[in-house]
Amino acid sequence: MPKLFPYRLYLVTDEAACLGRDFFWVVEEAIKGGVDIVQLREKHLDNDAFFEKAMKLKRICRQYSIPLIINDNIDVAVAVDADGVHVGQSDLSISAVINRVGVQMPIGLSLERFEDLKAEGAEDAWYYGVSPIFSTPTKVDTVSEWGLEGLSSLRKLTDKKLVAIGNIKIENAAQIISSGADCLAVVSGICSATDPASAAAAFKSEIAKGLKNL
Ligand code: TZP
Ligand code: MG
Q: Could you tell me one molecular function GO term of this UniProt entry (predicted)?
């Protein structure tokens, strides 16, 4: 499992949030604007369509030397030689993923509550998703939000990199970083922005401000 997770701005895709614009254009603009890592997360696609999208996205990510992470689908992650896979609490356990793909595939794990730190294999995760930091219309089946206080408490309990996700906007980005997140994962704040490249750049500059306040 690689130790390093130097990324600060994580784009999590949702084609519906791209508001009818070309999906790959949106992602490429976001990368040009400063996104450091991309996760393909498209719940509406069947396996074949998901694989096709992953293959195409992998080419774009390669071109910019950006890691591509695949949400949930280990078979597709292996098939496209992705840089990692991300699992939630209701997906396969980390140990099950390791048994499937071997330890060479980095695995991101979403934490929904403090107890999830003790789940089987959680200590082998590459990073923890703090999910959701704030409730969001983009994902409505979440339990409860961590909030900034929950994030600060979690920060004291683990040295793993923490990736906050959920209703992160340019306006609250710096505060989430200064409360203990290492990286911000964003869907609509970038995918639905009029100019995804400028939005990504604005997130990066807010992240830099938040890091100064640590
Ligand atoms: N997991 C927790 S919240 C979320 C996911 C995938 C969606 C975040 O979307 P947005 O639009 O950035 O609030
Ligand atoms: Mg999942």
A: thiamine-phosphate diphosphorylase activity
Q: How far is CA 8 from the centre of its chain?
A: 10
Question: What is the distance in A from the centroid of ligand 2 to the CA of 91?
Answer: 5
Annotated catalytic residue 90: no
Whether 36 contacts 65, CB under 8 Å: no
Burial of 98 (0-12, 13-18, 19+ CB in 10 A): middle
In angstroms, rounded to a whole number, what is the distance separating the alpha carbons of residues 143 and 132?
A: 8
Q: What angle (nearest 5°) sits at the alpha carbon of residue 184, between those of residues 181 and 187?
A: 150
Dihedral over Cα of 35, 36, 42, 46: its sign: positive
Nearest CA to ligand 1 atom 11: 188
Tens digit of each residue's pLDDT (9 = 90 or more) over 199-214: 999 999 999 999 999 8
The whole-angstrom separation of Cα 124 and Cα 106 is 9
Q: Which ipTM did the prediction report?
A: 0.97
Q: Which of 8, 58, 139, 161 is catalytic?
A: 139
Tell me, yes or no, if 110 is annotated catalytic: yes
41 is catalytic: yes
Enter the pTM of the model.
Answer: 0.97
